[in-house]
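Attaching the record inline, Q. Sequence:
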Amino acid sequence: MHDSLRRLPDAELEIMLILWEAGKPVQRSYIDEQLKGKKDWAVSTVLNLLARLIDRGFVAVARQGAGKMNIYSAAVSEQEYLEFESKTMLEKLYGNSLKNFVATLYSGKAIDDRDINELRVFLDEHRKRGTNA
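Structure, as predicted:
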């Protein structure tokens, strides 16, 4: 995992979600197209967000074609960022207690008994794989 990962502001995360979903290098116009109907950002705003993401090491940029069009790609995987964000949230908000996190979701009705059962199955399967490895 990148040692320099930091939490992304919502606007930058929006750009990263588009890049992760694309799964390949894309032009800025692709990002603009994906933002239609969600965000009404000017081209300069998107370019500014991309520049920040490049500076932070989240996005890589390359020139492509005769017109030297910039092509953008994720330099940090979605899984890597999710692991970082999840760990940070669990540590900061729940004292690194998964039990407290799940209890909060359950009491707030964000999850139900079906979700708890899915979690139980996941944990049982993980435990079995861990002991057989």
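The radius of gyration is 19 Å. The mean pLDDT is 91.

More tomorrow.
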